[in-house]
Design brief:
Pfam families: Cys_Met_Meta_PP. One of its GO terms (molecular function) is transaminase activity. The protein has 382 residues and is α/β, with parallel strands linked by helices. The chain is built from 13 helices and twelve strands. It folds into two domains: 38-251, Aspartate Aminotransferase, domain 2, CATH 3.40.640; 254-380, Aspartate Aminotransferase, domain 1 (Alpha-Beta Complex). 35% of the residues lie in helices and 15% in strands. It has a seven-stranded mixed β-sheet, with helices on both faces. Strands 8-9-12-11-10 form a five-stranded mixed β-sheet, with helices on one face. The N and C termini lie far apart (73 Å). The model has no long low-confidence stretch (mean pLDDT 95). The protein binds pyridoxal-5'-phosphate (PLP). Pyridoxal-5'-phosphate binds at residues 82-84, 108, 110, 151, 155, 180, 182-183, 202, 204, 214, 216. Residues 82-84, 108, 110, 151, 155, 180, 182-183, 202, 204, 214, 216 line the site of pyridoxal-5'-phosphate.
């Protein structure tokens, strides 16, 4: 270390390689890693060293993606700065200019925008199909079709398609399959074990679980994930160490949270289906979720008000359930698809899809189910 005050203040106490048996993972809040000499730099490029620069890789990113890969039953994983970053990496790992993608018509709006508005510029063609009405993908497959994309539980109408059937179909037709498992999490279903090539999460939701991070994770076979990792690095979509650390911390309670949130959602769905002010309740049916590895139907419930005009009153009367256009935190929250996620829909599209002005999307939290029900009852008007 230098002798003088100015140098000492910069370097004093710095012991990056000190072995400390901390019980929790340290946050590697560094943009770059130091090398003792040029030999070690050579070793890194020869594939022997793990970390060079945080955009290329960081222990906190790896802790998160390794954990999700293991929980999903996948060979490898890569984390990204958001769910959209992970979806982009997965799509670009599979697709080349001129390719065609088949996707369920009920995909997240951001995924639709990425494919329809951005990847179309690379001549990647999107076709959406209604998995509730379709019997086979065969009539929609072209010589250029490379990928089939679906979500386990859709947003906001919470439809669950027969995923084992559609994955089998797509694989028989020679397609790669990518599943967005955000709403179900690996606690309820692991699409890789059903044959999916890539599984993606907006870890912003249940994986993190506390509405305090934006993160994404993509898992799958090592070769595809290797390519996806290059894309994350080259497009600058890497997850920050602190966000990765927070997400990993949230992950530790995923099973506890999911159990409680799903059980609460069941009670809330039962209550809503008997309430005179409620029209339709959207909640995954038991039969539809029979391929899940646990007898749970997710923790989201959507419903319509019989009197659409009462929608403003409903949101205003809620006292502690917050309106927040996201989901999956430990706190129960409500959203309104028409004025948020599905804002761009025309009145015609709203009527055709059922995503109408009177539709409420409820993300059920870990609070007392009795309190959640009392709060909803108050806002619905007795
Ligand atoms: C199902 C689904 N997939 C992907 C995303 C995008 O995730 P993020 O907001 O973390 O980019 C969302 C966001 O709401 C989502 O609901």
């Amino acid at each position: 270390m230098g002798e003088r005050f100015e140098t000492k203040t910069v370097h004093i106490g710095h012991q990056p390689l000190r072995q400390v048996a901390s019980k929790s993972t340290p946050i590697y809040q560094t943009s770059v890693f130091a090398f003792p000499g040029l030999e070690e730099v050579e070793q890194f490029y020869a594939g022997e060293g793990e970390y060079l620069y945080t955009r290329n890789g960081n222990p906190n990113q790896a802790e998160l993606s390794d954990a999700i890969a293991a929980l999903e039953g996948a060979e490898a994983g890569v984390s990204a700065a958001s769910g959209m970053g992970a979806i982009m990496a997965g799509l670009l790992a599979v697709l080349e200019p001129g390719d065609h993608v088949l996707a369920s018509h009920e995909i997240y709006g951001g995924t639709y925008a990425l494919l329809h508005k951005e990847l179309s510029r690379f001549r990647i063609d999107l076709e959406c199909v209604n998995l509730q009405e379709l019997r086979t993908l065969a009539d929609h497959v072209r010589p250029t079709t490379k990928l089939f994309f679906m979500e386990t539980i859709t947003n906001p109408l919470l439809t669950v398609a027969d995923m084992p059937y559609w994955i089998r179909e797509a694989k028989e037709l020679g397609l790669k399959v990518m599943v967005d498992n955000t709403f179900a999490t690996p606690y309820l279903v692991q699409p890789v074990t059903l044959g999916a090539d890539l599984v993606v999460h907006s870890a912003t939701k249940y994986i993190g679980g506390h509405s305090d991070v934006t993160a994404g994770v993509l898992v799958g076979a090592s070769e595809l994930i290797g390519r996806a990792r290059e894309i994350v690095v080259n497009y600058g979509a890497s997850l920050s160490p602190f966000e990765a650390w927070l997400t990993s911390r949230g992950l530790k309670t995923l099973a506890l949270r999911m159990d409680r949130q799903c059980d609460n959602a069941r009670e809330v769905a039962d209550f809503l289906s008997q309430h005179p002010a409620v029209g339709t309740v959207y909640y995954p049916a038991k039969e539809a979720t029979s391929f899940f590895c646990r007898p749970k139907q997710g923790a989201m419930v959507s419903f319509t008000l019989v009197d659409e005009k009462a929608i403003y009153d409903f949101y205003r009367k809620l006292q502690w359930i917050k309106f927040a256009p996201s989901l999956a935190g430990v706190e129960t929250s409500v959203s309104h698809p028409v004025t948020t996620s599905h804002r761009a829909f025309t009145e015609e599209q709203r009527q055709a899809t059922g995503i109408t002005m009177g539709l409420v999307r409820l993300s059920v939290g870990i609070e007392s189910a009795a309190d959640i029900i009392a709060e909803l009852d108050r806002a619905l008007g007795k």
